Amino acid sequence: MKTNTELQCDVTNELLFEPSVDASNIDVTVKDGVVTLTGKVCSYAEKYAAEEAAERVTGVTAVIDEMKVELPSAHKRDDNDIAQAARNALAWDVWVPQDAIKVKVQHGWVTLEGTVDYKYQQTAAEDDVQDLTGVVGVTNLITVKQPVVAPAELKVTIKNAMSRAAELDGEDIDVVVDGNKLTLRGTVSSWAERDEAERAAWSAPGVCDVDDQLEIAA
Q1: What is the DSSP pairing of strand 143-144 with strand 109-116?
Q2: Architecture of domain 4-69
């Protein structure tokens, strides 16, 4: 098990290694596997990349993102311009259903609303807007609406998907089904394994909500 100092060093080095992140203005603190990132970044895309970089480090059990986005003057955009750019990005994405998503922008913060059939569509919509110039934050309120599938069938489908995943050992994961809502409980060895379990759960037909309660082993 890594000490707080060792984990802090590893996260800092990963941030320095990540080419899309300027780590010079990011501070890292660690307590019992929980990493807190503070400081400032130049875009929401960089903020997201820094958080992902910290999550990749072995031993990290949670990441608290307290970084602030301070846009350079050249990157500042009017809310109307951002909204139009977001609508264009969504319209050009084959994964996002046409006219399914509404976009609102206030002081550079983008809010997405609407209903889609699958989780990957919800994720694709957020990915489309988070890298746009002028965006300082994204709130994804898109809901996933799918037909209800028999709980027993849904659980078997997800467990089978987990067993097929090369980077996932699903033996220690319990899948609890309540209608078309899932709860994942148990322990995984890394953040990547946790993400893979959640991806498998969301990929099953009929799932509209996943409560990921998986813990990452220290």
Answers
A1: parallel
A2: 2-Layer Sandwich (3.30)
